[in-house]
Amino acid sequence: MVDRVLVAEPRGFCAGVEMAIKALTWMVRIFDGPVYCYHEIVHNEWVVKAFERVGVVFVDHIDQVPEGAPVMLSAHGSAPEVVAGAQDRAAIVIDAVCPLVTKVHHEVKRMAEKGFDILYIGHEGHDEAVGTVAEAPESITLIEPELGLGAFEPSDPEKVALLAQTTLGVYEWQEVMDSAQTRYPDLWTARRSDLCYATTNRQSAVQALVEHADLILVVGSENSSNTQALVRVALEHGVPAHRIDSADRIRDDWLEGISVVGLTAGASAPDHLVQAVIDRLDPTLGFELFSVTEEEEYFPLPPQLRNFVGVLQAMIEASVTARPAREPGLIETDRSWTATEALDIL
Fold first, then answer.
1. Which sequence positions are flagged as catalytic?
2. Which of 73, 78, 118, 294 makes an SS bond possible with 82, Cβ 3.0 to 4.6 Å?
């Protein structure tokens, strides 16, 4: 029987996921539907199903979007040809790409234009990696973190750049970067790490949790890279760890002889799933929050959506009544509500 549950803070939704979920909620509320979304809006099974229940259609190819339909591009970033294809087909296109992913896309294009060979550390087939590599496929080499640099040979050893998928584990990035810096002393890297702040913070929380827990449970979906990284961090520190989609995936044999469970969630996992795990474990001494840092990051809604809603709001006000001077509209008060509240109104 579990005695205590230590619940990591921070955990769950990051600023990019918050922005993307709220943006897609706006789309669902504005359009009669269906609204189409290129790739899963975020990598979480529960979130995707919640949107599917209200008519969102997720597609893997942009030509599956009917002519004239509204479409959203996922938080993981899309290839240039996908963005162009969406703009050709859709009545309105809202790109919910995380700003941190956009930063890496800009870095790829800039270094490719300067003639650099780019090492991109990421996972083959992951939506973010696919979109990033497509920015400069002739200049970029995808390196799986666990395989290292392998036989990579640049055209000019003095013009090599190193970039990374934002959801990688810190230890994955560091190991490859150390190897690349040894091999290429003039290696270019971004001034700020490409790794997402939320990814790093959640991994730091797990690193702290393993000092106090007998078992780590990570709530999140299988295709969530940052969720899988949290599991790997715990295992790297010698503590058993399991990824679970929900509380009903917990196996009784995992809990045999376990006194303290450390609990966290990937950056796209809703917090009610965490609460359900606590209820399932039913610790005799209850649960307590285990905080390593605070997060105050906020990403505003995509500019295309802000502009579109602003125009709609102005048209309605002009035809019905004028808004009192200086009274903020719904877009302006976006920071006052959360993705959890957005999911609640679906």
1. 128
2. 78
